[in-house]
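Same chain as my last thread, 205 residues:
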Amino acid sequence: MSAVLTGRVIAAFGRQYLARLEDGSELACLTRGKKSEVVCGDLVEIQPTGDASAENGAQGVIERIAPRRSLLHRSDAFREKLIAANVTQIIVVVAAEPSFSDELLARCLVAAQDQKLAVLIVLNKCDLAGAAAAARRRLMPYSAIGYRVLELSAKQDVAALRPLLQGHTSVLVGQSGMGKSTLINALLPDAQAATREISSALDSG
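reply #2:
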């Protein structure tokens, strides 16, 4: 039996995962049973399986989740869904257009405070001048009480965000249409290609 590996879960596809190992390599993983409590950010122990020379390459089975330093989740009337573990910073992405939800923003800030996480509010799509001015006014109360607000356009330049990621394990949250995917792709140009490759290896979408 191969030696147990340790790594951090960096992507999730249902019950299938991608883990970055201590040597920097990445390994496609599954969990045992039908129910999984694994989320992105988890530190895990993995039992390697499969053959690296085979068509789908080496894979692994997640055997254990290490104790978490933080855990983000969201709840509705019917269930609780785990989002990410062991993060140190929550980045709330709002946009000049479409209009963002003040309620969702407030809930994100409360969750960050509960888990003692650093907070950064990113106002995206600031190239839309008129809409950006209105969104900026809505965010002024948050700036006034000490929350950091960064303005940018993910389609043009995300350089101002990069220094604020240093030294943190960050999670991006926000409602649909705020530009989270565009922001991630700008920060990590290879993310889409890597996701397609690992989805193919796991026979998942």
